[in-house]
């Protein structure tokens, strides 16, 4: 990836042209696509356990087979090449590489990723490897999971194994994907694995994920080839007030601390926000933050990965208990520690199959805020996309105009942010394939490639062809 030149357009066509060197890709995650859950030494992750627990995942779906990418990876890489993707963001499965979360690597697991990376490089596609996309080895969860410091230390050892095996070929690394989800949905509301509902555990998990990130960056930089890039991917919430009241502004501040600054503070600035400590003082004194932790967490990054789908609207709670539309799944337990006085509201406008509001202005505002807060840190959109109720017609075609409109509007927002001064260097569409969508099972389709789950057949949707042309030309067409 190279710096995206900030272009001030003077003609309509130029206004839709992305800078030379802008990176176009697509993304997936290991548990969502690989399958082969018990092959070649892989042991259960927390998502294997969670999915097999009755009532946790819609229809009792699991990732045991998923899209069978473990066996069909050549077909999938060929499809990426056919679509003209320049980069592929994928995640390594920790329990496939290091089944117990301790000790030496399993070579068959590493060999799978070696073959995948070699084929990507052979076809001119840049591999972008994410070390952790939520599939913690179950044995580490049994020992306490992310609320325990030891898990961060084990993660650094795993990062070293991955870097030793792939660091001569993979030039771009991401430590964690959306640690907010891992901490607060996994240990707070319980709608993600491991399904625990303890607000203090969620806060402890957030800190140890931060620490894991910092230790992993150190391990990567010690081992990967010179010139390799290190990053983290955060699902920064674009939080907006329902009204202009001071109370709603304070609700925004409180959720911004829990959703965003709990990670950007230590990772990018070397300190937790003081208002977060004050807000959560009744729950914890944060004594689990040890001396030198912040120095270890605050590692230089080459870019920040940004995942965006929809904005978040909040207000001061009115006591009715009815405003809980935070978009992260239903639970009797909140993923927002010490935020009982905050209400969440469904934003206006059209929605996707996830019930998420379609609002590309949120992405523009988010990019401009990040550019203001961290002006020297390049940005990459590492996930953006939408689920819709796609189906193959009798001719075997999948037309998804709503997804094309969604992606077009969000790419227009990215382009506008670049023109206005944001250093955005790439865009990864979520996702390449329809896949296992966590607690929703196979009921939600995010892919630009349709997967017929009984047969595994892949069918590029109209959006895949449309995105392929944008990636090939670097030009975003009008509506």
TrEMBL record:
Keyword Mitochondrion: no
Active site: residue positions: 383
Keywords assigned by UniProt, alphabetized: Carbohydrate metabolism, Cellulose degradation, Glycosidase, Hydrolase, Polysaccharide degradation
Enzyme Commission number(s): 3.2.1.21
Protein name, entry field: Beta-glucosidase
Enzyme class label: hydrolase
Annotated family: Belongs to the glycosyl hydrolase 1 family.
One Pfam family it belongs to: Glyco_hydro_1
Upper classification of the organism: Bacteria, Bacillati, Actinomycetota, Actinomycetes, Kitasatosporales
């Amino acid at each position: 990836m190279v710096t995206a030149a900030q272009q001030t357009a003077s003609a309509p066509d130029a206004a839709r042209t992305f800078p030379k060197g802008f990176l176009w890709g697509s993304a997936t995650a290991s548990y969502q696509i690989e399958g082969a859950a018990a092959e070649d030494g892989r042991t259960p992750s927390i998502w294997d356990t969670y999915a097999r627990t009755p009532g946790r995942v819609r229809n009792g779906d699991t990732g045991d087979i998923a899209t069978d990418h473990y066996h069909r990876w050549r077909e999938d890489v060929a499809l990426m090449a056919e679509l003209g993707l320049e980069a592929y963001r994928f995640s390594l499965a920790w329990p496939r590489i290091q089944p117990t979360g301790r000790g030496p690597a399993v070579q068959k697991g590493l060999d799978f990723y070696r073959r995948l990376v070699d084929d990507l490089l052979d076809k001119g596609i840049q591999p972008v490897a994410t070390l952790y996309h939520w599939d913690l080895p179950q044995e580490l969860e049994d020992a306490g999971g992310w609320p325990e410091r030891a898990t961060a230390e084990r993660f650094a050892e795993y990062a070293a194994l991955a870097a030793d095996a792939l660091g001569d070929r993979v030039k771009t690394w991401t430590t964690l994907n959306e640690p907010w989800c891992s901490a607060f949905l996994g240990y707070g509301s319980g709608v993600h694995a491991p399904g625990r509902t303890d607000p203090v555990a969620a806060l402890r998990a957030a800190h140890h994920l931060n620490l894991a990130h910092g230790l992993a960056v150190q391990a990567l930089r010690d081992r990967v080839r010179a010139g390799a890039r290190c990053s983290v991917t955060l699902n920064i919430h674009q939080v907006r007030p329902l009204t202009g009241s001071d109370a709603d502004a304070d609700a925004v501040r409180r959720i911004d601390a829990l959703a965003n600054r709990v990670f950007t503070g230590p990772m990018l600035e070397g300190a937790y926000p003081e208002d977060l400590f004050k807000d959560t003082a009744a729950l914890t004194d944060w004594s689990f933050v040890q001396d030198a932790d912040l120095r270890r967490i605050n590692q230089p990054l080459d870019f920040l990965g940004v995942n965006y789908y929809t904005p978040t609207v909040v207000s001061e709670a009115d006591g009715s208990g009815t405003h809980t539309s935070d978009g992260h799944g239903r639970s009797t337990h909140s993923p927002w520690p010490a935020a009982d006085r905050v209400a969440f509201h469904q934003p206006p406008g059209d929605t996707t199959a996830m019930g998420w509001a379609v609002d590309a202005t949120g992405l523009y505002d988010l990019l401009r805020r990040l550019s203001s807060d961290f002006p020297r840190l390049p940005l990459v959109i590492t996930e953006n996309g939408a689920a819709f109720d796609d189906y193959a017609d009798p001719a075997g075609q999948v037309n998804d105009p709503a997804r094309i409109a969604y992606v077009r509007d969000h790419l227009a927002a990215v382009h506008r942010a670049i023109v206005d001064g944001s250093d955005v260097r790439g865009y990864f569409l979520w996702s390449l394939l329809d896949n296992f969508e966590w607690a929703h099972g196979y009921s939600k389709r995010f892919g630009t490639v349709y997967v017929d789950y009984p047969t595994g057949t892949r069918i590029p949707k109209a959006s895949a062809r449309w995105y392929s042309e944008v990636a090939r030309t670097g030009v975003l067409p009008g509506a």
